[in-house]
Design brief:
Elements (H helix, E strand, L loop, with lengths): L2 H10 L1 E3 L2 E3 L2 H5 L9 H19 L6 H4 L7 H18 L8 H16 L1
Antiparallel strand pairs: 1-2
């Protein structure tokens, strides 16, 4: 999961109460994936592994504990931030300047191109 995919989820997912309803047919299958270079792909794999490694530091913590916005372990937060940067670079998105709205707009353009 990256901030790019999370932006897509917040836009296209349905909801059950306050929870997102993640549908394979509506959300995942329609998500416009980037075409990363081999180096970008390797970087994303490294950052994904860093997320798993950071989680492993807390074997007794639940995902709810680990992803508490206030109490999230700093190494896990950093690992996710690095993953977000790597994914954004694979899309060619500006890490510093792109807002979530701009990100979704670009994803929708990609989706439109894929469906034409």
């Amino acid at each position: 999961m990256s901030n790019v995919h999370n932006a897509w989820i917040r836009t296209v997912c349905g909801r059950l109460e306050m929870r997102y309803r993640y549908s394979v047919n509506v959300v995942y299958n329609n998500f416009p994936w980037p075409t990363p270079s081999d180096a970008q792909k390797a970087r994303i794999e490294q950052t994904a592994q860093a997320i798993l490694d950071a989680r492993a530091l807390y074997p007794d913590a639940s995902l709810a504990d680990l992803y508490d916005e206030i109490a999230m372990p700093p190494e896990l937060r950093r690992a996710h931030q690095e993953n977000d940067r790597a994914v954004m670079q694979a899309y060619g998105f500006s890490v510093r300047d792109m807002t979530e709205s701009q990100c979704v707009a670009e994803l929708m353009k990609m989706y439109k191109a894929l469906t034409n």
